[in-house]
Specification:
The protein is an alpha/beta fold. The chain is built from 19 helices and 20 strands. The protein has helices at about 5-15, 20, 30-35, 65-80, 95-105, 120-130, 150-155, 170-180, 180-185, 200-205, 205-210, 220-230, 235-245, 255-275, 295-300, 315-325, 430-435, 445-450, 460-470, and strands spanning about 45-50, 85-90, 110-115, 135-140, 160-165, 190-195, 215-220, 250, 280-285, 305-310, 330-335, 335-340, 345-350, 365-370, 375-380, 390-395, 400-410, 420-425, 450-455, 470-475.
Length: about 475
Amino acid sequence: MGCPLTRRQFLGTTAAGSILLAAQPGVSSSVGATEEGWPELPPVRIHKVFVGRTGDIYMSRPTEEIGKLNEYLAGVEKKLGGIQFTGGDLIPPAEAASVLANIHGADGVMLFHLSGHGGGSPAEAMDQIVNMDIQTAVFSQPFSGHGWMYFPRWQKAGKKVVLLPTSDWSELERVAGLMRVAPWLRQTKILVVRGPMGTAPACSAEQAKARWGIEVVPISVEETLEAHRSINPAEAEAEAERYWIACAKQIVEPTRDEIINAARFYLALKKLMLAHGARAVTSSNCMGEPAKGCFAFSKLNDLGLVGTCEGDMDSALTMLMFQYAFGVPGFVSDPVFDTARNALIHFHCTCATKMDGCAGERLPFSIRTQTDSGRGVALDVEMRVGQPVTCGKFINLDTLLISTGKITEVTHDALACRTQFVTEVSDARKMFLNWGGGVLEGDVMTLLHRVVCYGDRLQSMRDLGSLMGFRVIEEA
């Protein structure tokens, strides 16, 4: 029995290649989840506003460019998924008051600076829109007036604005993808089994709700046991065979029954998540009964959802950001340094097999036991050598720690967890000394864990910080 491909995966593979498709900045993160029963998240509404006069006048954009931009954004809407562009107001002739009324209810705004040197009613309208406290992107191409000189003051004042002084229209697509994060977080429920771990603000259901709109649903271990018992063993066997046994590169230690039990636990968590309308789960009982969470979390992350080990709320929120912004899963890592190789080495016993996103191909993987216990079922996933990666952690509900690197080697050291890979970083010694950026405190897990995703996402996460109002601190 071969590994199943969805129609979308097949089309991606036979066209430009599914890896390239999934690597785009905003491939929809809900495709696989929808196929397994989760409803799609509603589209994020981004209101377009064009500001300034056009035509054959000094330092202004051509009138016909507005139509071309609208056409381009229609393509972005179709390509990204989860985005709906609205509006299209032009100031002038529209008055600022009427445009502000139209924007109310939108999740974000895209302002197109067509002309103007910073004074008069168009500039005042831009100020009023930015001051609405709605995430806003300002696109200002060359030769569209000199008003750009005044735009940085918005960021300096802490406004939720991203500035795009560029001729590259693909930046609109990149930032539109980022604008999905905050609205989708407000519609996200996270199941937390046996209590949360991590920074104190992230572990507070009240603070998570107040700051980002996230709803935390506590789940007892007994509820997971009951859900596990309710799963038909034949259904679990079919799941294990279809998604794991038939697709594995090799099965080393675990028995077939152990693999079926791990698959049964995925189906149990799926049942609980669907019952509560949750798109993420984390468990501080993931090493206990009825099965280790490695299989379950891997499958959830393959689907464009989030499964996070060890009850780590900070990492769960980071993974949600990566999924919503870029359509890619995160890998929760227990990293160590090797300054001799200028390297940060990442490892853990659970990993998504679709690191390019749910429309991508699965990476080669072996089914193993969990390393430090020598029991249960875990995954050794072979990451792609040469792949740029981002390593981050969203802590205290207000700060993102971040670095970038490149995968140089896949290892299988007996001293570490099953999935292992070496990343070359900019300065391993500096990063070692700056671990935590001077702001992260807590227990070993809280200080240690980082989330790795495919792609260099540094600038995008800086921009997301501007849109959502959190700090970004580079660890290296």
